[in-house]
Design a protein that fits this description.
The chain starts with 15 loop residues before the first helix and ends with a strand. α27 links the parallel β13 and β14. α15 crosses α16, α17 crosses α24 and α22 runs antiparallel to α24. The longest helix is centred in the middle third of the chain and has 22 residues. The protein contains 31 helices and 21 strands. The strands form 4 sheets. Strands 9, 10, 11, 12, 13, 14, 15 and 16 form an 8-stranded mixed β-sheet that branches. A 6-stranded parallel β-sheet has the order 3-2-6-7-1-8, sandwiched between helices. It has 5 domains: 175 residues, P-loop containing nucleotide triphosphate hydrolases (Rossmann fold); 74 residues, Arc Repressor Mutant, subunit A; 159 residues, 3-Layer(aba) Sandwich (Rossmann fold), CATH 3.40.50.300; 149 residues, PCRA, domain 4 (Orthogonal Bundle), CATH 1.10.486; 52 residues, Thrombin, subunit H (Beta Barrel), CATH 2.40.10. The radius of gyration is 28 Å and the shape is globular. The chain is an alpha/beta fold. The protein binds a DNA duplex through α4, α9, α19, α21 and α26. InterPro entries: DExx_box_DNA_helicase_dom_sf (IPR013986), DNA_helicase_UvrD-like_C (IPR014017), DNA_helicase_UvrD/REP (IPR000212), P-loop_NTPase (IPR027417), UvrD-like_ATP-bd (IPR014016).
DNA sequence: GTCCGTAGCTCGGCC
DNA sequence: AGCTACGGAC
């Protein structure tokens, strides 16, 4: 090939920094890519460049992206650039790549080839079983906390022994004990959790240098996107694979690191330069996405972080409009404002619904926006939240499939053994579990010995029926029945479908709909294993589709996406930044990065919204504005809040209650709306004593001393205030009785 | 022993 | 508001 860089079409239209990254010679390269600086473009061109100009075989390329959807898009774009030879390269998430590798060598780590993947829910169920068998007090050892400690240990490559060695407190030692048993039970169940996928691949490479070398030679070029969100284990994996070739091309932006809670460690990107001897660094600061005003807002917010590398986004595409701030009386008014703004801009601004996105910090904030959209007939899609795969009927069915595939899956067995009802209760399961413990086998092995276990009556025949059912279903798999048909067979033969059909409630109808959808998804896969792997690893962002609807999602899920018009909502201290981050400077910086991510998703118009009063956890309380709003220069903001008259507000609440169903809204959403429509009432203004108190204000109590207000509920004489005291923890007090004064 | 309704407790973000 | 723990009915 004689194409030189000066006329290589793969470098056309790139700025000098982008072109330098794409045509990088080889060896380790760190691309610091600010938001909207064209990093996806750089990555795809780089891959195409390797294949065309460097004559690298596509099979020698491993590219890691953050979501499966991003992987599919990248593959398609490379395909457009270089043609179908691109098929043989691996473009996937860390988790998907690891599953692929582990499936090639399951026995090396003591697993069997049909191992299954546990999601967070499964993992917590198993941990909860272990905690109670150890007699741990669930108050002192909440399952979720143990689960997250174990998860964090794995993402830092600490095994049970290492965690025990680090433990300084009895609590930590107990968690390490739970961890050790958890790993044993996972192995016994032939299951891995999400963190295991990375941890075990790293272990595989560490224990079997020959296997590592095989992959080092195969993947001669490594590319990793969103490097700021890698954890210790993922980083170690990259170092293992890249050690030989040193062709490690990483892209990221430390200002967009927002997954600290699951172990993401910004040091991986900040210290990448030290990981290899001669790391080249390229900085992309020119932004091609947003207006300068939006970038100025983003820059001014993020500049408040201490722990960062200085960076300044700029564009040559003009300053655009000011960002718009809206302050509503309550969340319902905030949502109504969002709805009417969308309708107005769609009519007068020539925009489509799909040009708009609404972001929130926590999933529960979607509800009020959804209600407003339903009332106005705005079609929308919520990304994430209660995921499809988290729905009960889907989890039940998937558990059956997993159990068919992998008979030792204890969590799946426990979930479905009495679904549909077969008269097998906790007592009978406990008997089998006792027998299993005596025999030193797994629950599954003991199940067939249910008579010896002393199971009687209905439960006895129930277990017998269950064993027959499972054998019949496994027979279908041996006959190579494809996954879609297998689900149909399960629904009929188990009686699951008839149980749902017996009662035609709205819930059951939508469950049957969901199951049909599951059948059609499953039909796209050839084998049960392929279907199970794919469904275990779907990311929230993978669900985004191209329809003309407004997209609602958390700011986390929005990372990597862009929209012409963005609403960043519920900008209130305690929500965004989240209450659990307020007293932890490092976490507060992560919240700020998250805010930065949200702001930089917007191309043309950015709305920042908040409400003075918000219903949460079933109660309404006063809010205080997000501190991030104070970090924006006022000159960049236009306040578009409208003070409505009482009549206007009244007609807004009562006037347009049209409930329609033509917009693809699920029946459950409509039902939910129907039961919660009159949730908001605003009393005559708060009394002085209430208005003196807001979340975050320090107070002194007559007997408990100093504390901080965390919530205020109710009005007038009934007003109560929740205060976190340093002496006795959180207390809820009736304001008119409590001996309180301002600190 | 299992099933079903009610009371009490928790409530962040995700592959 | 949604899930586990308990008590009564079968």
């Amino acid at each position: 090939m004689t194409i030189t860089n000066s006329n290589n079409p793969l470098l056309a239209g790139l700025n000098p920094a982008q072109a330098a990254a794409v045509s990088h010679d080889g060896g380790p390269l760190l691309v610091i890519a600010g938001a909207g600086s064209g990093k996806t473009r750089v990555l795809t061109r780089r891959i195409a460049y390797l294949i065309e100009a460097k004559e690298v075989h596509p099979g020698s390329i491993l590219a890691i992206t953050f979501t499966n959807k991003a992987a599919a898009e990248m593959k398609e774009r490379v395909n457009e650039l270089v043609g179908p030879i691109a098929k043989s390269m691996w473009v996937s998430t860390f988790h998907s790549a690891c599953v692929r590798i582990l499936r090639n060598h399951p026995e090396a780590l003591g697993y069997r080839k049909n191992f299954v993947i546990y999601d967070q829910d499964d993992a917590e169920k198993l941990i909860s079983l272990i905690s109670s068998s150890m007699g741990l007090d669930t108050k002192r050892f909440p399952t979720r906390q143990s689960a997250s400690r174990i998860s964090n240990a794995k993402s830092e490559l600490l095994g049970p022994k290492e965690l025990m060695a680090k433990a300084t407190h009895i609590m930590e030692r107990k968690v390490a004990e739970v961890y050790a048993q958890y790993q044993e039970r996972l192995l016994g169940a032939n299951a891995m959790d999400f963190d295991d996928l990375i941890y075990k691949t790293h272990e595989l490479f560490e224990r079997y240098p020959a296997i590592l070398e095989q992959y080092q030679r195969r993947f001669f070029h490594l590319l990793v996107d969103e490097y700021q969100d890698t954890n210790v284990a993922q980083n170690a994996l990259v170092m293992q694979l890249g050690e030989r070739s040193r062709n490690v091309f990483v892209v990221g932006d430390s200002d967009q690191s927002v997954y600290g809670f699951r172990g993401a460690d910004m040091r991986n990107i900040l210290e990448f330069e030290k990981a290899f001897e001669d790391v080249a660094v390229i900085k992309l600061e020119q932004n091609y996405r947003s207006t300068q005003t939006i970038l100025d807002v983003a820059n001014s917010i993020i500049s408040n972080n201490q722990y960062r590398e200085a960076k300044n986004l700029w564009t040559d595409q003009g300053s655009g409009e000011k960002v718009r701030l809206f302050v509503g009386d309550d969340d319902s008014e905030e949502s109504n404002f969002i709805a009417s703004s969308i309708l107005r801009e769609r009519e007068t601004g020539g925009r489509r619904y799909s040009d708009f996105a609404v972001f929130y910090r926590i999933n529960s904030n979607s509800r009020s926006v959804e209600e407003a959209f339903i009332r106005r007939g705005i079609p929308y899609r919520v990304v994430g939240g209660t995921r499809f795969y988290d729905r009960r009927e889907i989890k039940d069915t998937m558990s059956y499939l997993r159990l068919i595939q992998n008979p030792t899956d204890e969590i799946a067995l426990r979930r479905v053994i009495n679904v549909p009802k077969r008269g097998i209760g906790d007592q009978s399961i406990a008997k089998v579990a006792t027998l299993a413990a005596e025999m030193g086998t797994t629950l599954v092995d003991a199940l067939s010995k249910y008579e010896a276990a002393g199971v009687t009556g209905r439960a006895k025949s129930g277990i017998a029926d269950f064993l027959v059912l499972m054998e019949a279903l496994r027979g279908h798999v041996r006959d190579e029945m494809p996954p879609g048909e297998l689900i149909e067979a399960f629904l009929d033969e188990s009686g699951y479908r008839s149980e749902l059909a017996a009662n035609d409630s709205v819930d059951n109808l939508s469950r049957l709909d969901n199951l049909s959808e599951l059948v059609s998804v499953a039909s796209e896969h050839e084998t049960l294993e392929a279907f199970l792997d794919a469904s275990a690893l779907v990311a929230q962002a993978d669900q985004i589709q191209g329809d003309d609807v407004v997209t609602l999602m958390t700011v986390h899920t929005a990372k990597g996406l862009e929209y012409p018009v963005v609403f960043l909502t519920a900008l209130e201290d305690g929500i965004f930044p989240h209450s659990r981050s307020l007293y932890e400077p490092k976490e507060l910086e992560e919240e700020r990065r998250l805010c930065y991510v949200g702001v930089t998703r917007a191309r043309e118009i950015l709305y920042l919204t908040r409400a003075n009063q918000r219903s949460q956890y079933g109660e309404s309380s006063l809010t205080i504005p997000s501190r991030f709003l104070d970090e924006i220069p006022p000159s960049l903001i236009e306040d578009v809040s409208v003070r409505l008259s009482y009549e206007e507000r009244r007609s807004r609440y009562l006037g347009d209650s049209v409930v329609q169903s033509a917009s693809g809204l699920s029946s459950s959403t409509l039902k939910r709306y129907g039961t919660t429509s009159n949730s908001t009432k605003v009393d005559s203004g708060p009394r002085l004593s209430v208005s003196q108190l807001k979340p975050g204000i320090p107070v002194v109590h007559g007997s408990w001393g100093e504390g901080v207000v965390t919530a205020i509920d109710g009005n007038g004489d009934n007003a109560s205030v929740t205060i976190r005291f340093s002496s006795v923890g959180s207390k809820k007090l009736i304001l008119s009785y409590a001996p309180l004064k301002l600190a």
